[in-house]
Automatic annotation (TrEMBL):
Gene Ontology MF term list: metal ion binding; prenyltransferase activity
A Pfam family annotated for this UniProt entry: polyprenyl_synt
GO biological process, one term: terpenoid biosynthetic process
Xref: InterPro entries: Isoprenoid_synthase_dom_sf, Polyprenyl_synt, Polyprenyl_synt_CS, Prenyl_diphosphate_synthase
Cofactor (UniProt): Mg(2+)
Name assigned to this protein: Probable farnesyl diphosphate synthase
Amino acid sequence: MTGTSPSDFAKRLDKTADDTEALLGRLLSDDILHDEIARPKRLMDAMRYSSLNGGKRLRPFLVVESAAVFGVPREAALLVGAALECIHCYSLIHDDLPAMDNSDLRRGRPTLHKQTDDATAILAGDGLLTIAFDIITRDEVHRDANVRLLLTRALARCAGIGGMVGGQILDLAGEGRFGGNEPIDVARIQQMKTGALLRYGCIAGALLGQASVQEYQALDDYGRALGEAFQIADDLLDVEGDAAALGKPAGADAALGKTTFVTQLGIDGAKQRVRDLLARADSAISIFGDRATVLQAAAHFVAERKN
């Protein structure tokens, strides 16, 4: 399997989650920054509600561990991870809205628009999206402004029209929201909607570490395999999981008429695809040797998770 024990991996994952939580708490405090006029309480409360006290923080973890391969200072990687997590949390707020997936439950709590209202939820998502780019461009991330530029551009592309946002509209089209009978490419939708941010967590470490072309490509390949494995595991959980463990309703994909990896491959086929992706991920990062044992364990964690 891997050179990292399950207990050691769990400790590292929990440590990064705790550190990310603390950092987000500071970044989303009520303290007004230079060039800000005010931080409205209702907005900040809503942003904190949807980004604190929940989640495994897998995306920041991937940033921290991919950066650790190159000896990048943990504090810098955590800042990048916090920016990425803000993007992820904003996407969840907007995905849950009535006009999108219309979800009532997220991480075992009412979704933000249920806790507050649609307008507050939309603006809280906007706030998290925007502050992500404030965070990623800070001097503390890297002394080289070109590295910060590359990180920022990559984040915009993974989160934007060619990544997560584009994947979301393709997903909605696949539900028949806009009429017509467009062919559904589940793999492409996954690569964009879910996989792009997970992949960013991996290539961000390479960018922070000013990796060689070969090293960057290895983490890129690993990130693509991990992202697809994550989505297939998610599709399987939607069929086989339960709401209490998931922290959200099970069977939501079927209720919305979504085409998923499970509907296309069947349960056994989907599980075999996950095994193939794990082998691909392991192979991609083999060039790093023992420095990549935690990343290897992360791929297995993603594939075998229960929530």
